[in-house]
Amino acid sequence: MTQFDIGTTTRVVDGVLRSRRSLRAFKPDRVPRAVLEEILNVAATAPSNSNTQPWQVHAIAGEPLATLGAALLAAYRENKLPPSPHFPDPLPNEYAQRQRDFGAIYYKALGVDVADMPNRMRQTEKNFGFFGAPVGLFFTIDRRLAPHSWLDLGLLVQNVMIAACARGLGTCPQVSFARFHPVIAQHLSFKEHELTVCGMSLGYPDRDEPVNCMSMPRREVHEFANFDRFEDA
Ligand SMILES: Cc1cc2nc3c(=O)[nH]c(=O)nc-3n(C[C@H](O)[C@H](O)[C@H](O)COP(=O)(O)O)c2cc1C
Predict the structure, then answer these.
(1) 211/124 Cα distance (integer angstroms)
(2) How does pLDDT run across 190-216, given as a tens digit for each residue?
(3) Residue nearest atom 31 of ligand 1, based on CA coordinates
(4) Ligand 1 close to Cβ of residue 171 (< 6 A)
């Protein structure tokens, strides 16, 4: 194992973890392929069940990004694809409340009234333009696998965001793309069993944009961790 100074490493790792945010406004500056390959290379250190590494990533930039973005926007507006069931309906109240809290912070930062549906829809549409980012990533999984393999893919996705953040790049993970799997599959060279789990916008963030200055609250440790049976050292 690599030797490292614990104190410095703790500060650096915690600092990167705490500074990562979902960013939704980007500068047009291109991201070199070498930088993206470096990010994916380090992200691929993610653990996976029996080292199955059940992830596939499709990177897209330039003209193909613009073309796919336009097709996704058209499909969103056409509204013919069935909704993606990434949340159950109804969402249990505990989660629905946090979703409402997210919406309140998000639309306040954008200066949009939560009741203003046309403007909310305009903001949602920005997902399909990758929020102006120069790079789009699509994360797919082999649909023959069981839900636990999705966990492996999630670890890779988080690693990509952290590795990007450590290089001054911003990301936004986006489940909004999942519904449009048939459109995405037409544009990218998917293998037979590949299913779009989520996408991601990646680029140099525009830090002056208010939408990039939000801080989403987190539950306290005592709210989600149970230490009843923990004998302290
Ligand atoms: C799996 C996943 C899917 C998400 N999908 C979207 C999305 O489609 N559009 C979007 O704007 N944000 C999306 N987000 C970002 C979340 O809203 C964000 O992670 C959450 O509000 C916490 O904020 P933070 O990432 O800035 O800490 C997604 C996040 C995750 C983990």
Answers:
(1) 13
(2) 999 999 999 999 999 999 999 999 999
(3) 173
(4) no
